[in-house]
Amino acid sequence: MSERITAVSDGSFEQDVKLASQTQPVLVDFWAEWCGPCRMVAPLLDQLAAEHDGALKIVKLNVDENPQTPASLGIRGIPTLMLFKDGALAATQVGAAAKSQLAAFVAPHLATA
After folding, report:
1. What angle do CA 112, 16, 61 make, to 5 degrees?
2. Chunked in runs of 10, what are the mean pLDDT values of the chain (113 residues)?
3. Does the keyword Ribosomal protein apply (predicted)?
4. Which is the catalytic residue, given 26, 27, 35, 41?
5. Burial readout 75-102 (b: 16 or more C-beta within 10 A, e: otherwise)
6. Dist CA 12 CA 94 (whole Å)
7. pTM of the predicted model over 0.85
8. 110 catalytically annotated
9. What is the spatial distance between Cα 87 and Cα 66, in angstroms, rounded to a whole number?
């Protein structure tokens, strides 16, 4: 995990994601250690975090260590990316994706200068 991406837990999800998304969009990567596609997406998320530093917060939630939040959101497969904006879920993407697809996924939710 890079210095721009932080880990969240079931206990911190409300504060770190829902409340934080009221000031800037928050992209949550639901993942697990054993998930190959999750490992493929991780460096792409690091790149997105660097490119959108200050405009987009990216966090990771390990589904094995934190089962309550994924269950409450209806997550059935990983990697699942959920983008929260203004305290609510704004978009979801399931499965590994190319960097261009990830950039297109977050672009409509970023503030334009």
Report:
1. 100
2. 89 96 96 96 95 94 98 96 96 95 94 58
3. no
4. 35
5. beebbbbbbbbeeeebeebeebbeeeeb
6. 23
7. yes
8. no
9. 20
Residue 57 among the catalytic residues: no
Place of tokens 């990983």: 78
Q: Are 26 and 91 in contact (CB under 8 A)?
A: no
**All domains in the chain, ordered by first residue:** 5-109 (3.40.30.10)
Q: Which of 17, 26, 38, 82 is catalytic?
A: 38
106 C-beta neighbours (distance < 10 Å), count: 21
Residue 1's pLDDT is what?
66
